[in-house]
Write a structure and sequence with these properties.
homodimer, 273 residues, mainly beta, 4 helices, 12% helix, globular
Chain lengths: 273, 273
């Protein structure tokens, strides 16, 4: 049986690219979640690049306009095929009711094989200590208007560390850090594509500063460092620089064995709130 | 009088793009320094995009092949012009002796106006404490074979914090962190373009782990957060994850007033040594 996630980003051949259809279930505010979009782009690139470079090692995306439910196409362009890596770019586009084609995302990526990375560890950042998932704050505890705003949250089993979930009760900690457990509720185990979802699945870290408005992503980069083991992911997002109308948000994802499997950084404009 | 830096990246119109010529003075190993290359690409984009979006807010680059001294062209492509930002991509190419054109770098960037950023500061990372420049380790203290290897170092006034310069004497600290003062020796004051040089101007942080080989950059992203004040820059580079054959290197740059003006992250393959 295909998982909700895989169904949502499934692609069919479309000329020199790929086409798919987003439903209404992965929305955050008015637009489809940026991590899901990145996963769809990455799947299109994987299908184009193929072996021996199946995995995104690094992918940088620029979000040009909000993506809504409906049909989309991914247009890939392979820039270079090397022995160890392949480099490609891709655009995700939608066709408006007027017939005009609008670019939503442009991405630049390096693909390789995460299955062939060595097991050497010189230094690796450790997952944050936090209570077990059953002692964390679930989405069901979030305010109803927040849930309505964000159909995405019903697609994720997301458990926030209570120490950084004060914003749920209107008491943000003001530290600019979120920590959470994450898995897909239908049992779909993590892989490189769901890691791209994971890095953009937590609430904006600006919530921890009491800024609840929309924080539009200017640019987002993810590095994948390994294929995740089955089970819960742990995700931490941090901002150390919120000034001058913008902020960076750094994300880290560890698998159930405690291995760092993904890193991300995005630049966002700060909400006005 | 034009500075060494501005002369090196100066561009002349070339069809729909820009052309320039790199000398031999900004080499690190066999190739031109990645930060200088990024500055040349960013200048080409600035000249193309123009007002009211003069500054790169975010730029991500993929390094496809090493750039040598000689003629290069920058081919820009403006993707979207908005009110607050413009998005563009660019390629830097060189023509081989065989006449074949080879792409060296592909970059994706968001431009805006750093002169219009607000002065609000909610949180900002502080510059690291370190001895004044005159008590730091200058490039003149580095081993002669290292200097020969890297003509770039003669273009920079770079002063390493002695606490993280042990590698110069073959005693790397093993912490994966470098801190340094940086300025251009001919008095050229910092601006957004030289910040792109600054984020890639320090020795690879792998040296701090005793790995002295080449650490090829897979992808590099820089965020510019403000226009720097005149004077010394402080630069810190850190890697917290060196495993599986790769590492991230995070950079931060503060201006002489202590304001964070740039952030960078790169993914590199680790040296074999």
């Amino acid at each position: 049986m295909t998982s909700e996630f895989d169904r949502e980003i499934s692609l069919r051949p479309d000329g020199a690219g790929w086409a798919g259809t987003f439903g209404d279930g992965w929305r955050i505010g008015g637009g489809i979640n940026g991590g899901l979009l990145l996963a769809a782009v990455a799947l299109g690139l994987r299908k184009t690049i193929g072996d021996p470079h199946p995995d995104p090692l690094a992918i940088s995306a620029t979000y040009l306009s909000p993506t809504g439910p409906g049909t989309f196409v991914v247009r890939p362009d392979v820039v270079r095929r090397g022995r160890v890596t392949a480099t490609a770019q891709a655009s995700l586009l939608q066709v408006l009711d007027t017939g005009a084609e609008v670019e939503r995302i442009r991405a630049l990526a390096t693909y390789g094989d995460l299955g062939s990375v060595s097991t050497d560890v010189r230094v690796m950042s450790r997952p944050p200590g936090m209570p077990p998932p059953e002692k964390c704050v679930t989405v069901a505890d979030a305010p109803a208007d927040f849930l309505e705003h964000s159909s995405l949250l019903q697609r994720l089993d997301l458990r926030l560390d209570p120490a950084c979930a004060g914003w749920v009760l209107g008491q943000p900690a003001g530290r600019g850090e979120f920590r959470a457990w994450l898995r897909l509720p239908d049992g779909r185990e993590p892989d490189p594509l769901t890691l791209l979802l994971a890095i953009d699945a937590l609430p904006p870290v600006t919530f921890d500063f009491g800024l609840y408005g929309w924080a539009p992503t200017v640019a987002l980069t993810a590095y994948l460092r390994g294929r995740p083991a089955p089970g819960w992911l742990r995700v931490r997002t941090v901002s150390r620089n919120l000034f001058g109308g913008s902020l960076e948000e750094d994300g880290e994802v560890w698998d159930s064995t405690g291995r760092l499997v993904a890193q991300s950084r995005q630049l966002a404009f700060s909400p006005r709130g």
